[in-house]
Write a structure and sequence with these properties.
single chain, alpha/beta, Leucine-rich repeat, LRR (right-handed beta-alpha superhelix), 5-stranded mixed sheet, 6 helices, binds zinc ion
Length: 372
């Protein structure tokens, strides 16, 4: 019987028939009289975590034959093993700092093992144990280990470690952490605007592990992340595509400029209204190269030219659909999302949905790709 929510053993049923008992590993204290008059108990396995015994904790255990006090216990309480007439062998740890003369009814003991030195034993015990008792100081435990409960990836196990000296302790063995993970499953598909999430779980302990998946930079089927419309001199790209990504994808393209015709750095995000100059002959000498007409960059859904799809873009599309605002060619192309021929409230709504990731611009470009 344990005190609720604590690591203190309060009471052992003294009439229990079992001859051996393993105190729950993790227990730190065995309370006063806890095992008193446990008439059938012959051996007890104490937890390696034990720190203290209450008074008379094993008083009157008539059949208790041997007991090993775990390393870490510092005090043997009064009458701890008193009136245990069968108790012949005890093992004491060098961690003991005080020794209560009444802890044993000395005349029953035959052998005392002690892990400290003979001098330390003498200083600790003095004459509390009769000199007729055989003392084996400087004892070194030779533990044999038996697994009681195998540790798993997610749960600790228990083993008992016993020594011929009569020490028997239960030890918690740590979780292995070797999970048995199944296949990765998709929690969230990556899109061109946001990364995705995959997860897998352990079939033994159900631990779940997640990884993030980078956002797409190319169409899943291997097509490029842009569509070049040579007839209308437009290059459609996904949001979040940089100048460098585009120049890597179009032969000979070396410069992309802003609306102000100032060349952009390679890490600049492409935005609607930027201009790309593509050489007629991609292999020509850069000094004398002849440039074709400029192409306008179109990021579908990005009307205001900041490269990002937001509510402001949806508002521009809506105002255009009711003729409150005029859009230029690049903006108009950016507003005709999903393969539309005109800009209406439907396109404005799609753009608004894309701004909160309810719509995937990848599908707009895929639709364009099909149409081309
Ligand atoms: Zn030993
Ligand atoms: Zn597991």
């Amino acid at each position: 019987m344990y005190q609720k929510g604590s690591d203190r053993l309060l009471l052992y049923p003294h009439a229990a028939a079992r001859t051996q008992y393993r105190v729950y590993e993790g227990t730190k204290e065995i309370f006063t009289n806890a095992f008193a008059y446990a008439g059938n108990l012959e051996t007890v396995i104490l937890p390696a975590s034990l720190a203290a015994f209450g008074e008379s904790a094993f008083y009157g255990c008539k059949k208790l034959k041997s007991v090993g006090v775990p390393e870490g216990v510092t005090t043997l309480s009064p009458y701890l093993f008193a009136d245990c007439p069968a108790l012949a062998t005890v093992s004491l740890p060098q961690s003991l700092q005080s020794f209560e003369a009444t802890a044993f009814s000395g005349d029953t003991l035959k052998t005392v093992y002690y892990t400290g030195t003979a001098a330390a034993y003498k200083a600790l015990v003095g004459s509390a144990i009769p000199s007729s008792v055989k003392v084996i100081p400087s004892h070194v435990h030779n533990m044999s280990v038996r697994e009681v409960k195998k540790a798993t990836c997610g749960a600790t196990g228990v083993s008992t470690q016993t020594c011929a000296c009569s020490l028997a302790v239960s030890v918690i063995t740590p979780k292995t952490g070797n999970h048995t993970f199944g296949q990765w499953t998709v929690v969230k598909e990556p899109s061109f605007t946001a990364g995705g999430v995959n997860e897998r779980s352990c079939s033994v302990c159900q631990k779940v592990e997640q990884v993030s998946v980078p956002r797409l930079t190319a169409l899943p089927d291997g097509e490029a992340f842009f569509v070049k419309d040579d007839e209308n001199k437009l290059i459609y790209v996904y949001p979040n595509v940089t100048v460098n990504m585009l120049t890597a994808g179009i032969a000979g393209l070396s410069t992309v400029s802003g609306r102000d015709m100032v060349p952009c750095g390679g890490d600049t995000l492409l935005a609607t209204g930027m201009v790309a100059f593509i050489p007629i002959d991609p292999d020509a000498d850069p000094e004398t190269v002849q440039l074709a007409d400029p192409y306008l960059i179109v990021v579908q859904g990005d009307l205001d030219g900041d490269g990002v799809i937001g509510a402001a873009d949806a508002r521009l599309a809506l105002r255009n659909s009711v003729e409150l605002d005029a859009l230029d060619d690049a903006q108009t192309a950016a507003a005709k999302v999903g393969g539309a021929d005109i800009v209406s409230a439907t396109e404005a709504r799609l753009i608004l949905r894309a701004s909160v990731e309810l719509e995937d611009p990848a599908e707009w470009l895929a639709a364009l790709n099909k149409a081309a």
